[in-house]
Write a structure and sequence with these properties.
single chain, alpha/beta, Rossmann fold, Dihydrodipicolinate Reductase, domain 2, 2 domains, 6-stranded parallel β-sheet, 11 helices, globular, binds alpha-L-sorbopyranose, NAD(P)-bd_dom_sf
């Protein structure tokens, strides 16, 4: 397959990031099947027309069902809020389209399993947007682990911290409503950490968690509540977690700790992990995404310590496609790399990785943590 014709749903943050990736792939990865930006869909006719023009789509529509009926579309790329993922995925599979869906895959584990069954039965390619797997420094950590250079893994500790909810006046947007988002920091950020843990060191067996919604009510957006009355904006309840923390045991014997929060002042996109093994350790922080801190226990004692490796050498994943060593890359490159994997997989007639199986696995851990919180006990992953 020389070309993959794309129809995309959603044009905000992720819609823009994915559109940008489709534009960059042919320039930097010319051997990958070329994405053709056929049509973009959104509810607001004026805004989606503007997005189509600005991002470079051939056409636009306000009806995603119409998009699915088009014969000149091979791949449906879903960047809409989580509550519509299931319906669009099921309809895309029925229409025989490949699917690229943002995370978390669905509102619940049951929904995500249904989505997996549908794409597998339809025989289409499916991918879930765990883009942080595609950071070259994360790939380097994975390589060191797989080659046994860290030895036996004892610890995996990870945190994804943001601070955009620290202001109690921040409005009650869709990401703060359970019926639209499924959960809060847990599904938005924790889902990424869980996927990274699966990717880097394998499956978990049991978890125990806790969560909190620190700001219980927030002002309704003006589009819903109208202008403030007597200087006061009407408020509504926050129905998701601001922060979720949990401990885990891994099948390989390691102990894990996870922290996801959107209310940690000063942390903008601190998606970070540390892994300690018998022969070495690694440390990664997305706010310094080009670097991996590496420690090897067999370094001579007088120079032992963490060293900073800049993952921009041609020997590092994806780096050769970009700039000379030391000329760093950014967030958008994670999306470009995942898009390369998707297009390559379609061209080679294989499933991309991560796919819906990984999406379901992440959702399973999310739900086991929720069960453990609800029942104030350890929960096994197999229970859910
Ligand atoms: C918002 O909190 C968000 O954009 C997430 O939805 C993304 O998945 C994460 O990459 C960055 O933060």
């Amino acid at each position: 397959m020389k070309q993959v014709r794309v129809g995309m749903i959603g044009y905000k943050f992720m819609g823009k990031a994915h559109s940008h990736a489709y534009r960059d792939v042919p320039m930097f990865f010319p051997k990958v099947p070329k994405p053709v930006m056929k049509t973009i869909c959104g509810r607001d006719a004026e805004a989606v027309a503007q997005a189509a023009e600005q991002f470079g789509w051939e056409s636009c529509t306000t009806d995603w069902r119409e998009l699915l009926q088009r014969e000149d579309i091979d791949l449906v790329d879903i960047n809409a809020p989580s509550h519509v993922h299931k319906e669009i995925v099921l309809a895309s599979a029925a229409a025989g389209k490949h699917v690229f869906c943002e995370k978390p895959l669905a509102l619940t584990l049951a929904e995500s399993r249904k989505m997996l069954r549908a794409v597998e039965a339809a025989g289409v390619k499916h991918m879930v947007g765990f883009n942080y797997r595609f950071v070259p420094a994360v790939r380097l950590a994975k390589k060191l682990i797989d080659e046994g250079r860290l030895g036996h893994i004892y610890h995996f500790r990870a945190w994804f911290m943001q601070d955009w909810l620290i202001d109690p006046e921040f409005p009650l947007v869709w990401r703060l409503r359970k019926e639209v988002a499924g959960s809060g920091a847990h599904g938005d950020l924790g889902a990424h950490l869980i996927d990274l843990a699966h990717y880097l060191i394998g499956d978990m067996t049991e978890v125990v968690g806790m969560n909190e919604t620190f700001v219980k009510e927030r002002p309704l957006p003006e589009s819903e509540a109208g202008a403030p009355v007597d200087g006061r904006q009407a408020c509504g309840p926050v129905t998701v977690d601001d922060a979720t923390l949990f401990l885990a045991r891994f099948a390989g014997g390691a102990l894990g700790s996870f922290e996801a929060t959107r209310i940690a002042g000063g942390c903008r996109c601190r998606n970070a992990f540390e892994i300690n093994g018998s022969e070495g350790s690694v440390k990664f922080d997305f706010e310094r995404m080009n670097e991996l801190q590496v420690f090897f226990a067999d370094d001579p004692g007088d120079v032992q310590g963490f060293r900073r490796v800049l993952a921009t050498d041609p020997s590092h994943a994806y780096a050769e496609a970009w700039w000379p060593p030391g000329h760093t890359i950014g967030y958008e490159h994670t999306i470009i790399h995942e898009t390369v994997e998707l297009l390559q997989a379609i061209g080679e007639d294989r499933q991309p990785v991560p796919n819906f199986r990984d999406g379901v696995k992440s959702q399973q851990v999310l739900e086991a943590v929720d069960l453990s919180i609800a029942e104030r006990r350890w929960a096994s992953i197999q229970e859910v």
